[in-house]
Amino acid sequence: MESQKESLPTLRWGIIGAGLISSWFTKDISLPRKSPAAVHKIQAIGSSSLEKGRVFVETHLATLNPKPTVYSNYGDVYNDPEVDIVYIGTPHGLHKQHCLDAIAAGKHVLCEKAFTLNATEGREVLAAAQAKGVFIMEAMWTRFQPLVSKLKHVLFQEKAIGDVRRTFCDFGLDKDIASLPSTSRLRDPAMGAGSLLDIGIYALTWGLLTLESDPAKSERPRVVAAQTLRDGVDIATSFILHYPSTGRQGILTSTTEARTPEIFMRIEGSNGYITVEGIAASAPRAFTVYPKVEGRSLGADTGADGRRYDFELEGMGFSFEADTVAKSISQGKLENEVMSHSETVRVLEILDEIRTQGGARFPGEA
Q: Are both 108 and 157 inside the same structural domain?
């Protein structure tokens, strides 16, 4: 086992932000696995206070040995010579500056989605990383899960449901946004508050993944969008991706006022349909392929026999993206094709268009 570990790519991580997403990520990459594809060492934790950082380690990394160094600021993480890569798990509105600071220190970067508040910021960050010669990637962890690659194979290689026609996907969480303090990242527009950047980005991602066999060769979809705003923050967003040459449509939604059932997506084709389920649209766990049954309407209650694919994970599934990053960096790459720089910018551009039509704005935007 030790000799196997020595042959695997190794990354020493500095973690920026001691919130929920950082706790999930760090627990996953420090979890013992049967067949790891990389070795991950949590070297440092940067928090807004020393006490908060120490509580984070005690709560989420109690069994880790050796313990990571805890810093009461982010700058010390960027400048720690024992840190290879910085994971940024702070609110969206802080991503741009935190990425730029890490890049300036010569660190590789894995930054949580949404990568930045808008495409303009995203291009600036990616240009800085390119100029510095460091690896950077948006941490859209769902794209790296085995279910996604299998689903795309079933859709576009096996063509199990024929020609893909429509995708319906919703990501809803029941959050009482109005009861939160105005400084909460879920209420503060400066932090990128709203359902779209937080969870709607997953619905968008599923639309792109299931309607396009090859993003590099796909036409740019037309976007039609509407948002419900409360105090300038979107609590519900609905949008359609329309591909004129094929007629394919993605009907995609997000809300903070209702929780989506476990079956969060349906993909319709000329010869059947597929349902995808999980604890949330960000964490798929199974999909089922239903063949076309003449004379019956679509729906899981049609009585048609479905072919089900289940995916058991070690942890939540964050290790797949971390392993991919480690492999890319060990190969000298500055980006990874699964979540390429161009795809990050394209997603941000679509998010910008949705907000342009829906009305949500962030400080400093026209």
A: no
| Beta strand ranges found along the chain (DSSP E) | 10-16, 39-46, 69-71, 85-88, 108-112, 136-139, 164-172, 222-230, 233-243, 248-255, 263-269, 272-280, 283-291, 307-310
Closest CA to 326 of 8, 7, 4: 8
Report pLDDT digits (tens) over 8-38.
999 999 999 999 999 999 999 999 999 999 9
Residue 283 lies in a domain: yes
Q: 44: helix, coil or strand? A: strand
- Tokens 């040459």 belong to 245
Calpha distance 292→272 (Å, rounded): 4
Q: Is the pLDDT of residue 3 over 50?
A: no
pTM beyond cutoff 0.90 = yes
Structure confidence at residue 305 as a pLDDT band (50, 70, 90): confident
Whether the CB-CB separation of 191 and 338 falls below 8 Å is answered with: no
- Indicate whether 366 belongs to any domain: no
Q: Which residue bears the tokens 């991706």?
A: 241
- Whether 132 maps to a domain, the answer reads yes
CATH of the domain at 68: 3.40.50.720
Note whether residue 5 is domain-resident: no
Tell me: the pLDDT tens digits for 50-67? 999 999 999 999 999 999
The answer to whether residues 191 and 44 belong to one domain is no
Over residues 102-115, mean pLDDT: 98
Alpha carbon separation from 129 to 97, 109, 332 (Å, rounded): 13, 9, 14
pLDDT for 49 beyond 60: yes
Same domain, 302 and 187: yes
Q: Say yes or no: 263 and 167 in one domain.
A: yes
For the chain, where are the alpha helices, taking DSSP H only?
A: 2-7, 20-29, 50-60, 75-78, 92-104, 119-132, 146-152, 195, 201-211, 319-330, 341-358
What is the edge-to-edge ordering of all strands in the sheet holding 85-88? 69-71, 39-46, 10-16, 85-88, 108-112, 136-139
Work out how many domains the chain is built from and give that number: 2
Tell which residue, 19, 29, 3, 24, has the closest CA to residue 324.
29
The parent domain of residue 20 ranges over 10-140+330-335
